[in-house]
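Sample intake sheet
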Amino acid sequence: MDAVVLYLDNPTNKIYPHVNIWGSTSGTLQFGDKIEVVGYPGIGGSTITYTSGDFSGFGSQSDST
C-alpha cells in the first residue's frame, strides 16, 4: 500500500486547479491498475469523498476545462 500526505503552503491564497503528481517515483501506472482516491472535490469542498476504480488513461490539463 502506498500513502501520501500532501501539504501545500499557499501564502498568496492563489487558487490552484490541480496538483501534478505524474512525476511520482513509486512505480509505473498501467491501464487496468486499481486506484483509490480520497479528497475534497471542487475548490473549497467541505465533504471528503472516496472513490475507486480502474486506471483507464491520461488526460491533458485542457481536458478539465
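Comment: Residues 8 and 24 are 16 Å apart (CA to CA). The mean pLDDT is 69.
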